[in-house]
Amino acid sequence: MTNSQHTDIAIIGGGPAGLQAALTAGRVRRRVTLFDDGTYRNATVSHMHNVLTHDGTPPAEFRAAARRELTAYDTVSVREERVASVERDGDGFRLTLATGEVMTSYAVVLATGVRDELPPVPGLQEVWGDLAAQCPFCHGFEFAGQRIGILGAAAAPHLSALLGPVAGELVVLDEGQELPEGATLDVPRVAARVTAVERHDGGLRLTLDDGTTQDVGVLFVVPTLHQSAPFAEQLGLDLNPSGCVLVDEFGRTSVPGVTAGGDLAHLAVFPMPMASVVQASAAGQVAGNTAIAHLLSRR
Ligand SMILES: Cc1cc2nc3c(=O)[nH]c(=O)nc-3n(C[C@H](O)[C@H](O)[C@H](O)COP(=O)(O)OP(=O)(O)OC[C@H]3O[C@@H](n4cnc5c(N)ncnc54)[C@H](O)[C@@H]3O)c2cc1C
């Protein structure tokens, strides 16, 4: 593999995981190409939180700063392109871009993240990442002292326990669903179904199917996670029950030469990805290091 369309490590994803993996590889002058098709999980978020030294920074600003830093590393290229497929090719990999262009690599770092499928409530998508969110660490503090809503019974015990010291008042809107087995809830519950969500007086007005409304400052929901990209399936990677890619402590997937980091992957001990910018960056660094170890093992 010595043609001009070769890169030693192909990193797919330009969020915190992929950007950190590229920085790590660039620091030891490995030839890296990072692909980014511009679809970030936190695209609708104006300010990210719980990120040391960047608490409150707009995510786009964070990514732009990371991109600027990468320009110092002459072996790192960033391409704003979508990768369509990845397949094994001898002891390396063949990537086909959406343009039809083909590239080869010795190692692949998957950092493509996940896509959130929201409960099908009209208006919810429009306020996602702003007045509706999934993570109390990312989004709770800004609504301290306000009335906070939680949609659905499944995560209500956990979310209400976390948000208790933050909220002025909590309300669970659960259509009368059963709580998880053995769980209790010491929070008012509304058994009606939420049929619409709209902005109202700086917060949200929720319309219910019994004709009443509930006003809250912010609404917490539990999205269903989907892989953003088809590569886990194309490469036949082992998955966790969550649907995310199974990795070990070194970020290795079940296919040698393919590492993964960020929201798309997690260790078997976790029920889901520990989704945060810092965790994704850390996992990206591990995945980048392990990709380099894979290159060294080929010599
Ligand atoms: C509403 C919301 C609010 C959040 N707020 C916070 C917060 O305040 N603080 C915090 O720490 N975390 C927050 N998070 C979590 C955080 O956004 C994620 O944990 C983090 O973005 C994961 O990084 P990642 O690199 O794994 O994936 P992403 O940031 O989603 O990046 C995925 C990358 O893969 C690329 N990609 C995907 N498919 C392809 C393809 N086929 N070809 C090329 N590129 C591709 C995308 O373009 C993108 O560059 C929030 C999440 C949500 C949903």
Any descriptors?
alpha/beta, 299 residues, FAD/NAD(P)-binding domain, elongated, 7 helices, binds flavin-adenine dinucleotide, 19 strands, 2 domains
Layout of secondary structure:
Blueprint: E1 6-12, H1 16-27, E2 32-35, H2 59-70, E3 76-79, E4 83-89, E5 92-97, E6 102-110, E7 114-117, H3 124-127, E8 132-133, H4 136-139, E9 147-151, H5 156-163, E10 169-173, E11 189-190, E12 194-200, E13 203-208, E14 213-216, E15 218-220, E16 224-227, H6 231-235, E17 245-246, E18 258-260, E19 265-266, H7 277-297
Parallel strand pairs: 1-2, 1-6, 2-3, 6-18, 8-15, 9-10, 9-15, 10-11, 17-19
Antiparallel strand pairs: 4-5, 5-6, 7-16, 12-13, 13-14
This protein binds flavin-adenine dinucleotide (FAD).
- Average of pLDDT: 96
CATH class of the largest domain: Alpha Beta
Strand content: 25-35%
Q: Stretches where pLDDT falls below 50 for ≥5 residues?
A: none
Bound molecules: flavin-adenine dinucleotide
- What is the alpha-carbon Rg in Å? 21 Å
Q: How would you describe the shape?
A: elongated
**CATH topology value of the largest domain:** FAD/NAD(P)-binding domain
Topology order in helix (H) and strand (E) letters: EHEHEEEEEHEHEHEEEEEEEHEEEH
Give the number of domains: 2
